[in-house]
Write a structure and sequence with these properties.
The structure holds 2 protein chains of 2 kinds. By secondary structure, chain A is of the alpha/beta class. Chain A has one domain: P-loop containing nucleotide triphosphate hydrolases (Rossmann fold, 3-Layer(aba) Sandwich). In chain A, 35% of the residues lie in helices and 28% in strands. Chain A has a 6-stranded mixed sheet, with helices on both faces. Chain A is globular and about 45 Å long. The two termini of chain A are 19 Å apart. By secondary structure, chain B is of the alpha+beta class. Chain B has 4 domains: 1-73 and 316-456, no CATH class; 85-305, no CATH class; 463-494 and 711-844, no CATH class; 512-691, no CATH class. Chain B has 26 helices and 22 strands. Classes of the chains: A alpha/beta, B alpha+beta. The interface between A and B is medium-sized, with 34 and 31 residues. Magnesium ion is lined by residues 44-45 of chain A. Chain A: It holds the Pfam family ABC_tran. Chain A: Residues 2-225 form the ABC transporter domain.
Chain lengths: 225, 844
């Protein structure tokens, strides 16, 4: 599904140059659940942004389903992204002006799903994350755990092949965190590939494999199963 | 242009969509956008309020300007034969000088009818006649009405013009000399409500006009004011004919209120007719005149705007139209700048939404579209309010400017189209930049909160926001400079030494020149101790149109004629108005003369300007000399007056002749010891009404009369309009500034808090904010001052007597704009400065 080799990313500001990714290479197979760990600032989020086609690498290759996507333009990236990739963020990133239902519905609008079909699919997935009863609430009216469940629902409503999760439990207490991890595991069992950044060894144990990073490079890989 | 660009953009978007496997559902997308928009607007109430108010006011201004201009451009285009109807105009060529006019002598219409049987119709009108009206059937038959807008029209009138009759038969009116056609307005005024909507019952009633009875033969729907021949009452031309038999045969003399309209048949071009008119004038005009004069057809719909031949009624000066358009654009610009400023500062708040939407697969154009739609929704709301506001504006306008336009807001296709186009233009102007900025955010950064603070200070070297704020200040300062200069010029106008004393004189309108009545009136009022002098004349010293003529020395050829103003006065004129005599003597009782068709000899006064123009070395040298007036009369100069402003103040003093002519009395000047003495005024009115029982008494102190009626009409309108626009645009600008500072203060709350924690006082912080703006105001002034100087210099060129542009005006404008800005800025920055620092730091 994903194969990156010698991926580089450098941030340049007026004063300093930060090498966020330094010749990073690894592979993720279809259906895998991979955890990425490492100290703060080692480039995990940068990696995820590039995998999610939100950002360009400066050098190296990125094959997504055997297609080189490292130099895709804005239109192609948006297209690939909306059909194939779902995101879950630490800070939930729901749109405050839209209700739960409308937030989850949004990706379907961008992919052009018909209204009736949209309703069906949104309700289905809201049911699955057990938030159906709050469908007409606004994000501010929900607890953190509930918000993250909505975010997960939004990430999967389009049936993406890949889910990228950046510290999904970072803002949650352990109960809520476990619930979200349970959800991700279920999704993975149904065939979705997952790449998750986490600081928690406990959460990492849900995955099949842990990639440990330091200063933009992988240091070790632990295979858990 | 913009509209095309926008359409092209939309088409590209649609084309783009087609290429994809699945098209994002446009309606779902739109409804999603509109949901976010409405909720966003609701959340940022202050912002929304500022934007909606600004846009509403400016769109309303644009609507007013549009209605005004549309009114200007649609004169008389509603007649079914408008495209084939022409007014006969003349060119009069003497030497190198050509004069133009839209009027012809009285026999022309009838002769055209005989000589050009192929013409579909010929009709003549004599407009703007004055009448005093009595209603015999009314309860109070003593009650008098006066009407200024009476038009003599012939029986062919309705064959050319489509004015609608509410009662009476179009084909059968204005044929006899004793009938009259009223408009609904007058019928209601004369007969009251009980006849409203049953005007057939008014037909056949008799009314008295200028002491003669007329039978009502028709009631007209009120004429639209965008007609050159709008009036309130039609009298039959036959009535005019029977009282003016000689005039009807006079091919030479023309009157600027008499017009002839012809309707050409379909197959007869105006060019053909124009050629044929050469033979026509050669046939009818005496040889010398036939050489000078040519007649041409002028399209009816061009009459109002053609400044060369002059409108029939009034022509709106193009400077007024340009001023209005400029003002509309300025107010609009201010509102757009507000919008852009607020939208860009606010965009920081919405970066997250952009990041999320992009992450979920939104394309850049979709986001752009979304933000444009947001702008459009706002503009749409503002437009709806603007229509209501414009309606109110127009009502106020009508009360203000009744003598110029009669404007109403009619929601028709054209105004909706205008609003739609205006809306798109505003959307594009105001919405494009913020949409571009917002849609350009990179999702990864936006979600991380990386888009921030950077642009919140005005210290950074260059930013669009700075340019916009400076632009706003430039506009504000220009407006303030303009207002101050216009106000000073007008004040100068009013207070200028006119060469006579305009205070202390009561101006009374006189209905005729019957000498016995005038004498009776004079003798009655001079008995009052408060009345010092009384003078009867064709008009007060500063008054236009008292008759023009030519003067020359007896030995000089006719080519040396000097155009002069001729005032009909009496032997009390100089005393009453306190005009100084430079040489010779005043007019005496036995200088009185009544002009007739034959040559006359009489004594005159001339002003100093005429002395110079005639080539006399000094006023004393002119005394006793003869001059020729209008190539016919011989006049002896008995006195020379100091120059006084005899024509409008925009113009220089013109050569002027004063003589004791009894033919034309329209004004009494009454010099009093105390001008606003109610008892004296009452006494004068009683005396007047005793002498003229069938007329309506009208009086006004001379200085007030000068303000209201005489010469400053255009300047007054411009000034009043100017003031309204200036206030509106400054308020809108301040609101924008207020909103902007509000956002910047919030953005900088952390900085402010840290400064406070480190010991800065609230005063220091307010100062810090203000000093940043001071810079911008200074830069704006560097632009505004020279621009204002140029603009005002060229405006002042239009006045023969004008103020000098002193630096004080500019400094004042600078200080005022500074004051306004400081006030606005401190309001918000004080709020930020006094906020509890701990609170905002904890939020981090
Ligand atoms: N937009 C950016 N501009 C400059 N430097 C950045 C930017 N984003 C991340 N960095 C730097 O790149 C490095 C990696 O950041 P990040 O991928 O966010 O780390 P992590 O998610 O592992 O904490 C850090 O040193 C960070 O400061
Ligand atoms: Mg991170």
């Amino acid at each position: 599904m994903i194969k990156i080799s010698d991926l580089e990313k450098v941030y340049r500001t007026e004063e300093v140059e930060t090498v966020a990714l330094n010749k990073l290479s690894f592979e993720v197979k279809d259906g895998e659940f991979v955890a990425v760990m490492g100290p703060s600032g080692c480039g995990k989020s940068t990696l995820l942004n590039i995998l999610g086609l939100l950002d360009d690498p400066d050098a190296g290759s990125f094959l997504f389903n055997q297609i080189e996507v490292a130099h895709f333009n804005e239109r192609k990236r948006a297209d690939l992204r909306k059909h194939n990739i779902g995101f879950v963020f630490q800070s939930f990133n729901l749109i405050d002006e839209l209700t739960v239902f409308e937030n989850v519905e949004l990706p379907l609008i961008y992919t052009g799903v018909k209204t009736a079909e949209r309703k069906k699919r949104v309700e289905e997935v809201l049911d699955k994350v057990q938030i159906m009863h709050r469908r007409n609430h606004y994000p501010q009216q929900l607890s953190g755990g509930q918000q993250q469940r909505v975010a997960v629902a939004r990430a999967v409503v389009n049936h993406p092949k890949l889910i990228l999760a950046d510290e999904p439990t970072g803002n949650l207490d352990s109960n809520n965190g476990n619930e979200v991890m349970q959800l991700l595991t279920e999704l993975n069992e149904q065939g979705t590939t997952i790449v998750m950044v986490t600081h928690s060894e406990h959460d990492a144990r849900y995955s099949h494999r842990i990639i440990r990073m330091l200063d933009g490079q992988t240091v070790t890989e632990n295979i858990l199963i | 242009m913009l509209w095309i660009l926008l359409m092209a953009r939309l088409l590209a978007v649609i084309r783009d969509n087609k290429k994809h496997r699945k098209t994002p559902n446009i309606f779902s997308m739109l409804s999603n956008y509109i949901k976010t928009t409405v909720r966003n607007l609701r959340r940022n109430k202050v912002n929304t309020l500022i934007n909606i108010t600004g846009l509403t006011v400016s769109i309303a201004c644009c609507i007013v300007v549009y209605v005004f201009i549309k009114n200007e451009k649609t004169f008389d285009n509603f007649h079914s034969k408008a495209s084939r109807t022409y007014r006969i105009v003349f060119d009069d060529k003497t030497g190198n000088n050509i004069e133009h006019g839209g009027y012809v002598s009285f026999p022309v219409a009838k002769a055209l009818r005989i000589d050009f049987p192929q013409l579909e119709n010929v009709t003549q009108v004599y407009v703007r006649n004055y009448g005093v009206i009595q209603i015999p059937s009314a309860n109070d038959t003593r009650k008098l009405f006066d009407e200024q807008e009476i038009t003599y029209a012939d029986e062919y009138f309705f064959k050319t013009f489509d004015f609608q009759l509410l009662a009476g038969n179009k084909d059968n009116i204005l044929k006899s000399p004793d009938e009259v056609v009223l408009t609904k307005r007058l019928a209601d005024k004369f007969f009251g409500k009980e006849y409203a909507d049953a005007y057939n019952r008014v037909i056949g009633k008799t009314i008295i006009i200028n002491k003669k009875p007329y039978r009502i033969s028709g009631v007209l729907k009120d004429m639209p004011r965008n007609s050159n021949i709008a009036c309130n009452m039609l009298l039959p031309f036959k009535d005019f004919e029977r009282n003016n038999a000689a005039t009807m045969q006079n091919w030479i003399d023309t009157y600027s209120e008499h017009y002839v309209f012809v309707t050409l048949p379909e197959n007869y071009t105006p060019q053909q007719f124009d050629k044929a008119l050469i033979g026509f004038k050669n046939k009818h005009l005496p040889g010398e005149y036939a050489k000078r004069i040519t007649w041409h057809p002028q399209l009816l719909t061009k009459v109002h705007t053609d400044e060369m031949y002059g409108g029939t009624y009034y022509a709106t000066p193009s400077v007024l139209i340009i001023a209005f358009i400029t003002m509309g654009i300025i107010v609009l610009l201010t509102a757009c700048i507000n919008f852009i400023n607020l939208a860009t500062v606010q965009s920081l708040k919405r970066a997250k939404e952009v990041g999320i939407r992009k992450t979920l697969g939104s394309r850049k154009y979709q986001l752009r579209l979304q933000f444009m739609i947001e702008t459009f929704v706002l503009v749409l709301m503002a437009s709806a309010f603007a229509v209501l506001l414009a309606n109110w504006f127009l009502q106020q306008f009508n009360q203000y400017l009744l003598f110029i336009v009669d404007l109403g807001l009619h929601i028709d296709f054209s105004i909706i189209l205008f609003l739609a186009i205006l809306g798109l233009i505003i959307t594009f102007f105001a919405g494009y930049y913020p949409a571009k900025v917002l849609s350009g955010y990179e999702p990864a950064k936006a979600l991380k909160g990386g888009i921030q603070a950077k642009y919140t200070s005005f210290k950074s070297r260059f930013s669009l926001r700075k340019v916009l704020v400076v632009t706003q200040f430039v506009v504000t300062q220009l407006l303030i400079i303009g207002t101050i200069v216009v106000a000073s010029q007008i004040k100068y106008f009013y207070s200028k030494d006119l060469g006579y004393d305009k205070t202390g004189v009561l101006n009374v309108e006189m209905p005729g020149n019957d000498e016995q009545k005038l004498e009776l009136f004079r003798q009655t009022i001079v008995r009052n101790a408060n009345v010092r002098d009384v003078s009867f004349s064709s008009g007060p010293p500063t008054s236009a149109g008292n008759g023009f003529g030519n003067i020359r020395l007896p030995e000089a050829p006719a080519a040396d004629n000097i155009t002069m103003e001729r005032k009909f006065t009496d032997n009390n004129y100089l005393k009453t108005y306190k005009i100084q005599l430079l040489a010779g003597r005043d007019l005496w009782e036995n200088d009185k003369v009544t002009l007739s068709d034959s040559a006359a000899r009489y004594n005159i006064l001339i002003n100093n300007k005429a002395v110079t123009a005639l080539g006399f070395a000094s006023p004393e040298k002119a005394i006793g000399k003869n001059i020729i007036i209008n190539d016919r009369d011989v006049a002896t100069i008995v006195g020379v007056t100091k120059d006084f402003n005899n024509a409008a103040l925009q113009n220089e003093v013109a050569p002027c002749v004063l003589f004791y002519g009894t033919n034309w009395v329209s004004t009494a000047g009454i010099r009093m010891n105390r001008i606003n003495d109610a008892a004296t005024n009452d006494f004068i009115q009683k005396a007047w009404e005793a002498v003229y029982p069938d007329n309506i008494y009208k009086s006004m102190p001379l200085d007030e009369y000068m303000h209201k009626k005489a010469f400053y009409v255009l300047e007054d309108i411009m000034y009043k309009g100017f003031k309204i626009f200036v206030v509106l645009s400054i308020i809108i600008g301040c609101m924008g500034l207020y909103g902007l500072i509000g956002f910047l203060a919030v953005q900088r709350q952390k900085e402010i808090s840290i400064r406070k924690v480190l010991g800065a006082s609230a005063k220091k912080i307010v100062y810090m904010f203000s000093i940043e703006f001071l810079w911008l105001i200074g830069i704006a002034f560097l632009v505004a001052a020279p621009l204002g100087y140029l603009a005002m210099t060229s405006w002042l060129q239009g006045f023969a007597y004008r103020i000098n542009l002193s630096p004080v005006y500019f400094i004042a404008a600078f200080l005022i704009s500074l004051l306004i800005a400081t006030f606005t800025v401190s309001f918000q920055s004080i709020k930020a400065a006094v906020a509890n620092p701990v609170k905002s730091l904890r939020n981090e």
